[in-house]
Amino acid sequence: MAVAERYSSDLHETRSAALLGLALGVAFTICFATGLLSHLVQHPPGWFTWPSRPAGLYRVTQGLHVATGLASIPLLVAKLWVVAPAFWTTPPVRNVTHAVERAMLFPLVGGSAFLLVSGTFNTFQFYPWDFFFTRAHYGVAWITVGALVVHIAAKAALTRATVTGRLPDPDAEAQPVGRELVGRAEPTERRRFLGGVAAVSGVVTLATVGQTLRPLRAVSVLAPRDPAVGPQGLPVNKTARAARVTPELTGDDYRLRVTGRVGRPLELTLAELAALPQRTATLPIACVEGWSASGTWRGVPLRDLLELADAAPDAEVQLESLQTGGLYRRSIVSATHAADRDTLLALTLGGEPLHLDHGYPLRLIGPNRPGVMQTKWVTEVRVL
Amino acid sequence: MNGDDRRGPSFWLAVAFGGYLVWVGASYLWDAQRENLRSIGTWFVGGALALDLLLVPLAAVVGLGLRRVVPAWAWPAVRAALLATAVLAGYSWPLVTDRGGQPDNPTLRPRDYDRGLLVALAAVWLLAGAAALASFVRQRAEPAA
């Protein structure tokens, strides 16, 4: 107690801790739900079906994932500062309940820091570590959420008493379960403090969210992407060079092959593809890294091509890229997505042939898909 | 003051469920990233230690120091601006020091981030100045208690 009393600011108090905790609880729930969703979309178990509509849904969920994570950085720092005296509470452990509660704070704090730092650095493609980002981020998310469940249960009564205005004075005899902080701030002081923290979250959001909300791109001076910057006015996640796709691979010898469970296997040149009926769709590239940008694409609907090859109408397909290595050289197009009329094998963007970095000569672009599943440099459509 | 530690069965149910989720995450990492557990552990433990043993004490020292020189009416605005400065600078560190990225992809990190950070910090401190000024004027307008 001695340390806690010396470390004195009125704001080391239950009400500020509870309100920041509520905000963080909401933010982390959004992050976890949207992150889990993104994982399921990319690695769908049998029971999971991801719709192809609304076309911009993934853009919203993943944009929210990154924006909420960034906005929660100041909340987490402020929350830890408010509750700091409770770290040094004496005795460090009072009984089994208290020990369990405190033990779970370690995965909560360590996991939160891990997720926010690794997620932010991933949007910069900065990897100062050995682990594989997506897997580590996913595994640590479960650990953090598990610890959060325990923390919420430990502080539920206290938070309830706080928000319903039934929190007794710190000197009162009876205290809600879990109360450890002795500060008591004036309402004005608390309002200014929490208002300041909220404003900082707002500043961080404004400085970055323009990577997905195009009207804000001018104020998002610290966003790692600008949705208007790139060949043909669209950002690129993996360049042709990084994917080792050279102009020779996409020259006159290029063919698209339609194989697998088809009545009529096809092998089409670029000219033959261009001669097929085309369709135009305005669809976003929505990256897992939180940026997104819309383009006007034109190409052959995948379902028309499947019909031409005499495939089953509910066929699921696997696309193969000219890209020789990497995790994302192939992607699965579920029956739902393959049947959507706007799921295109696109030949043009904004009325011009695709830039090599956008997947020339042919790329997949479909509604409501993560960017990494919009396979570029498509050379084979295999019906499964 | 120590909180009352009595807990009902719902707490212990939450401990069981939360513990299960922790196990789900840990066993996933064990299966999928076994060769990188040391690296994951370093960043996990490092994150907790950096926050609890570095950032929070640093905030306390800076706060105690500055509170002596910054007038009370300006303090809430200065405190928020300090938090914003720390968060924005920490966030931008890999951008302004040019760490990571893809050399052949100019669409990743296309902006001038040195300028961006300066602009963002200038905006933050201007806003904080305006808020402090408003608070000063309000205090002067109110009759002394």
Explain this structure.
- The complex is a heterodimer of chains A (384) and B (145).
- Chain A is an alpha+beta fold and 384 residues long.
- Chain A contains 10 helices and 10 strands.
- In chain A, the strands form 2 sheets. Chain A has a 5-stranded mixed β-sheet with strand order 2-1-10-5-6. In chain A, strands 3, 4, 7, 8 and 9 form a 5-stranded antiparallel β-sheet that branches.
- The radius of gyration of chain A is 26 Å and the shape is elongated.
- The relative contact order of chain A is 0.14.
- Residues 1-7 of chain A have low confidence and may be disordered.
- Chain B folds into 2 domains: 37-69; 71-145.
- In chain B, 74% of the residues lie in helices and 0% in strands.
- Chain B is built from 4 helices and no strands.
- Chain B has helices at 9-32, 37-69, 75-96, 113-141.
- In chain B, helix 3 runs antiparallel to helix 4 (113-141).
- Chain B is flat.
- The mean pLDDT of chain B is 93.
- Classes of the chains: A alpha+beta (384), B mainly alpha (145).
- At the A-B interface, helix 3, helix 4, helix 5, helix 6 and helix 7 of A face helix 1, helix 2, helix 3 and helix 4 of B.
Amino- and carboxy-terminal Cα gap of chain A: 66 Å
Q: Residue-averaged pLDDT of chain B, rounded?
A: 93
- End-to-end separation of chain B in angstroms reads 32 Å
Q: Using DSSP, what is the number of strands of chain B?
A: 0
Low-confidence stretches of chain B: none
Biggest sheet descriptor of chain A: 5 strands, mixed
Number of helical elements of chain A: 10
Number of domains of chain A: 2
Q: Strand order across the biggest sheet of chain A?
A: 2-1-10-5-6
